[in-house]
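Researcher: Structure for this, please.
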Amino acid sequence: MCTVTFIPSGTSLYITSNRDEKTKRKSALVPKVYHYETGKILFPQDAEAGGTWIAAHENGNVVVFLNGGFKAHVAQRLYRKSRGLILLDLIDHPTPFNGFLAINLNNIEPFTAVIRDNGHLFEALWDGKVKHHKELDPDHPMIWSSVTLYNEEIIGKRNSWFQKWISANPDPGQSDIIHFHRFTGEGDAFNDLTMNRNNEMRTVSITSTEISGKHIGMQYIDLASDQIYSEQLSFDGSTVKW
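Model: Predicted structure, token format:
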């Protein structure tokens, strides 16, 4: 939930997330298709809270979360509901952005959501008190870094890495994007895109979602085991393994 890119490329678009997490937390369950009220939804599942940080609906909508809003916050001991479960509430809404506008976020930890909703792209932010949102240009590549782990200087540096890379790779494929997420940096284990802070907090996985034609493909890289898992969901709800 800590580094996200949105990249339109050729006839596809890619939404990719690095999950930075405490190493003592249980490993997530690999992406699987689940049946919800509005249809089939593909996502990796948090093994402790049951939610997720990224999910794709068979209708082509995608929601991905980052921890925190505008600035780092002090976490409460208890919240009413996991942010990962809030994400599932949003992706199970016919229009996830409207779901964000309508949902009660009282006593929910701050988050930033990137929402693809029926071809539109939104940034939706909950700062712990007030909702904020703006519509984005879906033809423009973007990167986000979580304010809970990266300060303004480091976020700016990561943005510059991204701009330099996208200028050199104007039409990347999924493997190129995953390579960027996995290996970009300056040898600073605390702040590179794949980070490791004294083996207490580290990037545990990379999840990349591709929307192309009438299919949604998700690649999941478990960095601890170096295993890659892939699954595809068609817009009519059928699934096939890659």
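Researcher: Any notable elements?
Model: The radius of gyration is 17 Å. Residues 3-240 form a domain with the Penicillin V Acylase; Chain A fold (CATH 3.60.60.10).
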